[in-house]
Amino acid sequence: MKKTILFLISIITLLTGSIVSAQTYHVIDGVVIDEKGETLPYVSLRITGRAGTMTNADGGFVFKYKQTVDKDSLLVSYIGYKNLSIPFSALHTSMKIRLEPAAVNLKEVVITGISAESIIRQAIKDIPKNYDTSPFEMKGFYRESGKVDTNYLSFAEASLHILNPGYTTDKRDLIVINKERNLKKIGEKEVNNPLHLSVDGAPYTILLSDIIKNPAHTLGKDYAEKYKFEIAGSTEIYGEDAWLIQFDQRDGVKQALYKGTMVIIKSSFAIVSIDFALSPKGIEYAKADISFLARPVFSLLGYSIKKLNEEFSERYIKIDGKWYPYFYKIVTAHHFKARYQHLEGNLYINAEMFISKVNKIPELKYDSRLIMPRNYVFKNYVTEYKDDYWGDYNFIKPTNSLREITEKISPE
Hey, what's the signal peptide range on this chain (predicted)? Predict the structure, then answer.
């Protein structure tokens, strides 16, 4: 009997220890600013080669990390600024992290004879060299919102596991939902969706827009004929020199194409950042059709809708010699008119995904029964907004404006 009791105590001790261990993590927060004291959005903060977080649009961040060793440090990186390494012994709450600008030459004179077009061609050719071609897993946080003018139609978040099959295969990414929530109230108002719209499978749409995995999806196979590229200058990112490549659709091209900027590492031709939006040259040809917007047959119901803009951003981080995505963002804007419902306004859809950790050996088994469907709509409706909902998952801190309205519905 005594042995049995001791055995049970041992099991309870082991289980309790594992639970405590699983829940033990440190939390820091703060803001990242530039040399003038202005906040910096979407800055990467990462334990070298491991977990990380990023700042929101207001420059604010929250970072959760487990017990570390003395040699660990937090690496803070942002395009055009010098890397900053902070020892873990110096981390605390309410931090104000200041980044110093790196030398940026926006009037670089190219004397090597290299052209922007040749840089793009080499970057695409070197994708197998610069990016992981084997399957890897990404642990991420996802947030989406839909608004008509200033009124929310939806607001959903999820922590995700993503299996990327590698950058030289046509296989699609797979997503498993760890946890999700969809707010029924934003501030003091109920979420109201008179248009009966839903954001449909947006995480997959974001991943499909990965320019490294699907360069033709953004630029098109005949990009050289439709786009004009130019070297706009040079900058520094992650301690490496890089080209700033600007692009826009050529005059006379009767399509809705894009205008934007790429950052490409000079030594390896790795694309590490891209931002683009619909070009003013082709906006008149833009179709009111968003692949991740589930909507009724507008014409039959008296709806008219016109696309105003579409924006996309993506960032990569270097881990053990390969570049991996750590941030995606899509923003779309449409003007709509619902004749029978006497409604008119601008419809905004915003979806962003932050990758907090990359596992070269996947932790999960991506069983078909667990995979998120391609047309999935987040359905776990809640009325309370709590940051601790995510446990030890790193998430993008809500912006100040969102924080102000969500705190009104949080319990005292």
Answer: 1-22
8 Å CB contact between 123 and 131? no
> At residue 276, does pLDDT exceed 90?
yes
Q: Model pTM? A: 0.81
Place of tokens 């078909």: 368
Q: Looking at the domain assignment, is residue 105 inside a domain? A: no
Give the mean pLDDT of 310-316: 93
Neighbours of 69 (CB within 10 A): 6
Is 345 found in the same domain as 404?
Answer: yes
Please report whether residue 108 resides in a domain: no
Q: Provide the Cα torsion 81, 141, 394, 275; round to 10°.
A: 0
Instruction: Give Rg (Cα) of the chain.
Output: 23
Domains held by the chain: number: 2
Range of the domain at 22: 2-98
Asked whether residue 110 is domain-assigned, the answer is: no
HSE (CB half, 13 Å, CA atoms) of 83?
14
Q: Is 208 exposed, middle or buried (0-12, 13-18, 19+ CB in 10 A)?
A: middle
